[in-house]
What does this fold into?
Amino acid sequence: VGHALGLQVTAEGVETAAELEYLRDQNCDRAQGYYFGRPVQGASLDALLKSIAEKSLSDQLVRGRATVAIT
It folds into this structure.
């Protein structure tokens, strides 16, 4: 229905890879839920985001895809 109205569709409550696969097959645009991560308190959010950014940079460096300026 959402796509027929020209809207993007977001699925909530995704908890398993099978649910995500089904949603992809149904052309769902976005998804959220415990499959991607548990809720965090605001005070913990900064540390979580820094951790994700550091892991992403580390992964990119391992794959040779990141450029780092050393000053």
Observations:
- The CA atoms of residues 36 and 69 lie 31 Å apart.
- Residues 66-71 have pLDDT under 50 and may be disordered.
